[in-house]
Design goal:
The chain is an alpha/beta fold. Helix content is 31%, strand content 27%. It has six helices and 15 strands. The strands form four sheets. Strands 4-3-6-1-7-9-11-13-12 form a nine-stranded mixed sheet, sandwiched between helices. A two-stranded antiparallel sheet has the order 2-5. Strands 8-10 form a two-stranded antiparallel sheet. A hairpin with a 2-residue loop joins β3 (38-44) and β4 (47-52). The longest helix has 18 residues, at 204-221.
Length: 240
């Protein structure tokens, strides 16, 4: 299969969980979008509980959803709010959101964030990335914008498709062998919908959903393929 084989696909039948700051479906750029889930998390004694919510606390998740939708318009999108207005997230909330998304049958988890590699954070991330792997749920993650060689989670697990930004055409992606951050996509000076209007942004956060959208097209063409197979195919279809 080549990249050209995916060119006219739309992500139909593929479910994408956006783990982010929420999604504002009232933004004109997302006109007509109906979310499969719109969830946040609250404390319930010593536990967390999922609650229905709406909106975006800053605009980041809205931008991610718009990029995905612009490239995979028929994919089903669900919002799982894990980031606050400062784009910070608690490991326990991310863990709960990811596990819930996997249990609800999402095929791809878009994680446009990364947690620095302190040892105490590794195992909670490994728990849910392993569960996703066993259920053939694919994870796409961003990397550090300051240093792509900095360990961040979930991006540094080998089952994750981790993406850095590049100055390249928005309709392709490339592969960087010999790195845990294997993929690169357009993420420089991207105009996106944001809280209160539009914004020009730069970052791996905005490169990751482009790979997510291409992966959705691949899963439309090859439903049920394993994480290993999908990752190898994405490597093979990347521009050289």
């Amino acid at each position: 299969m080549t990249r050209a084989d995916l060119q006219n696909l739309t992500g139909k039948g593929v479910r994408i969980a956006v783990l982010d700051s929420g999604i504002d479906t009232t933004h004109p750029a997302l006109d007509g979008l109906r979310l499969a889930d719109d969830i946040a998390f609250e404390r319930d004694g010593p536990f967390l509980k999922a609650v229905d919510t709406s909106g975006d606390v800053i605009g980041h998740g809205t931008a991610i959803a718009w990029i995905i939708r612009s490239m995979a318009p028929d994919a089903e999108i669900g919002s799982f709010r894990v980031l606050d207005a400062d784009l910070r997230g608690r490991t326990t909330i991310i863990w709960e959101a990811a596990r819930l998304a996997v249990q609800r049958g999402y095929h791809i988890l878009n994680c446009s964030f990364g947690s620095p590699g302190e040892a105490r954070f590794v195992m909670p991330y490994k728990e849910w990335t392993d569960e996703a792997y066993l259920r053939r749920a694919h994870i796409v993650a961003a990397c550090s914008n300051e240093d792509a060689n900095q360990r961040e989670w979930p991006g540094w697990f080998p089952t994750v498709l981790t993406v850095n930004l590049a100055d390249m055409p928005p309709e392709v992606w490339s592969h960087r062998p010999g790195s845990m951050v294997e993929f690169l996509a357009h993420g420089l000076n991207v105009k996106v919908p944001w809280q209160g209007g539009w914004k020009v942004v730069t970052g791996s956060s905005f490169a990751a959903p482009r790979v997510t959208a291409w992966l959705a097209r691949l899963l439309e063409a090859r439903p049920g393929i394993s994480v290993e197979t999908a990752k190898e195919m994405m490597r093979g279809m990347a521009v050289r």
